[in-house]
């Protein structure tokens, strides 16, 4: 069984600055559901929610880079279920992480579980788990391909475009 921790690690960002990291890549941390909002639904009627989870300390940051993702684990119907999600909040946000989740209508797993969580409930989170690291300024042009909730990491790239640099971005998106 994985050890649960509230231990605070540090991570170094792309500019070499050290930050406190709320999560650990190999150990679970309890985070608290702070906000749950239905933002849309798919053509087939699956609701799409934004979930905001608070870290144990409000000054902590996610500790991962855009392009990486996190894992969430819960005990559902006596089974340990672990799923991966792409943060839609920015790595520099303090005290919380947000994810965008399509709730499968028949879900017996995590998306259904998340949609039934009450504000204030805790769940285990770990990260960064994997992914690639996008470095702002590396590219002048970007082509983003996504489908369904694969849009989630693209939203984060959109946020990064706030940086005072000029990019040419093409986004191809399909949702059913
Ligand atoms: C890198 C990565 C990033 C992701 N990011 C997002 C995101 O930002 N937003 C989002 O909505 N979804 C994301 N997903 C998908 C997400 O991890 C879940 O698969 C999704 O929420 C459905 O989970 P569920 O347990 O509700 O599935 P259910 O509808 O309950 O699952 C139906 C069946 O499929 C199986 N199943 C479903 N998902 C998985 C899985 N991941 N691994 C093994 N078996 C599975 C279940 O065991 C079950 O038998 C991401 C997946 C990956 C790999």
UniProtKB/TrEMBL annotation:
Q: Does the keyword rRNA processing apply?
A: no
Q: Is this entry keyworded DNA repair? A: no
Q: Which InterPro entries match?
A: CBR-like, Cbr1-like_FAD-bd_dom, FAD-bd_FR_type, Riboflavin_synthase-like_b-brl
The cross-references to SUPFAM superfamilies, in alphabetical order and at most eight, read: Riboflavin synthase domain-like
Q: Which cofactor does it need?
A: FAD
Q: Which residues cross the membrane?
A: 142-163
List, for all copies, the residue spans of the domain called FAD-binding FR-type: 26-135
For this UniProt record, the keywords arranged alphabetically read as follows: FAD, Flavoprotein, Membrane, Oxidoreductase, Transmembrane, Transmembrane helix
Q: Which PANTHER family match?
A: NADH-CYTOCHROME B5 REDUCTASE
Return the protein name.
B5 reductase
Q: Which organism is it from?
A: Anaeramoeba flamelloides
């Amino acid at each position: 069984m994985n050890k649960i921790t509230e231990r605070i690690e540090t991570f170094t960002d792309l500019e070499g600055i050290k930050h406190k990291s709320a999560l650990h890549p190999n150990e679970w941390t309890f985070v608290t559901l702070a906000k749950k909002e239905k933002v849309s639904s798919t053509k087939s009627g699956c609701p799409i929610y934004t979930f905001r989870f608070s870290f144990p300390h409000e000054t902590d940051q996610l500790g991962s880079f855009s392009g990486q993702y996190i894992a969430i684990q819960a005990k559902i119907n006596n089974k340990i279920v672990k799923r991966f999600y792409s943060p839609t909040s920015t790595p520099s946000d303090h005290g919380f992480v947000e994810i965008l989740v399509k709730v499968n209508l028949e879900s017996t797993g995590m998306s259904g579980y998340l949609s039934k969580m009450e504000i204030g409930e805790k769940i285990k989170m770990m990260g960064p788990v994997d992914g690639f690291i996008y470095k702002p300024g590396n590219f002048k042009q970007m082509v983003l391909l996504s489908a369904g909730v694969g849009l989630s990491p693209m939203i984060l790239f959109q946020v990064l475009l706030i940086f005072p640099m000029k990019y040419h971005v093409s986004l191809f998106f399909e949702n059913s």
